[in-house]
Write a structure and sequence with these properties.
By secondary structure, the protein is an alpha+beta fold. About 50% of the residues lie in helices and about 25% in strands. It is built from 4 helices and 4 strands; from the N terminus they run αβαββααβ. Keywords: Signal.
């Protein structure tokens, strides 16, 4: 076997091995993505208050979130505030965080139009200047 044909053989064998190794992952990727859509859905909301130093406004927002927690599709919730940690990667500029766990995306979608959620927005949106939402599903 000449050097050129040996190189070609090795290159082709390497490609075949790579395709063989990756094929099971490619075949299961759509199924995995579909399965993740049916799994837990995490909805994390960060609020910045218009009056950042107002304890009353913060208390009103927290009270509103506590009422909002009665929405039926919420599996679990947590109301938080910035922890006293300081590192370059930490953003402590928000006032309140609202962490929600839903059984699936459909429950989160229903929450978005739930009358309790809409009432919360109506009653409390005047308190915040900015809201950032991070939604996530299983990898």
């Amino acid at each position: 076997m000449s050097k050129a044909s040996r190189r070609q053989f090795l290159a082709n064998a390497g490609k075949a091995a790579a395709v063989t190794a990756i094929t099971p992952f490619l075949a299961s990727a759509p199924a995995a993505a579909a399965a993740n859509a049916d799994g837990p859905f995490i909805h994390h909301v960060y609020f910045w208050l218009k009056n950042a130093t107002s304890k009353d406004d913060k208390a009103k927002l927290v009270a509103g979130l506590r009422k909002l927690s009665s929405a039926k599709t919420i599996a679990q919730f947590y109301i938080g505030q910035p922890a006293p940690t300081n590192r370059d990667v930490i953003d402590r500029s928000y006032a309140v965080s609202w962490l929600l766990f839903f059984k699936n995306k459909e429950d989160q979608d229903a929450y978005q139009t739930d009358p309790i959620h809409l009432k919360f927005i109506e009653e409390c949106s005047s308190l915040w200047s900015r809201v950032v939402v991070y939604d996530s599903i299983d990898v």
